[in-house]
């Protein structure tokens, strides 16, 4: 479970934070876009942690993808980060959200 990686953060997260896949049972298929949108992350409020997840997929027919994430504190410092290759980007991204980076 993700909170086991950062025990001091565990009390801050309700158990429902690991049930993201249940919050959106009808996920729409991914539609790639050629439009570039600049994104800037903002730190969470003081005393909170922010968890970011992202994934990418190769559009070469290989089915290969990558998944990654990071936990930031209110000062914007990265407390934990991970990245790894995978095969099914959508399924793997939801699994990471539900079970944490160790799954």
UniProtKB/TrEMBL annotation:
It comes from the Eukaryota. InterPro entries: RNase_H-like. PANTHER family: OS05G0353850 PROTEIN. This is RNase H type-1 domain-containing protein. It comes from Panicum miliaceum.
């Amino acid at each position: 479970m993700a909170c086991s990686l950062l025990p001091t953060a565990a009390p801050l997260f309700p158990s429902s934070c690991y049930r993201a896949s249940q919050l959106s049972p009808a996920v729409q298929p991914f539609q790639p876009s050629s439009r570039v949108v600049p994104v800037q992350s903002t730190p969470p409020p003081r005393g909170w942690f922010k968890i970011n997840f992202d994934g990418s997929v190769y559009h070469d027919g290989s089915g290969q993808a990558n998944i990654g994430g990071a936990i930031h504190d209110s000062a914007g410092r990265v407390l934990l980060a991970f990245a790894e290759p995978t095969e099914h980007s959508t399924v793997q991204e939801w699994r990471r959200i539900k079970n944490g980076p160790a799954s």
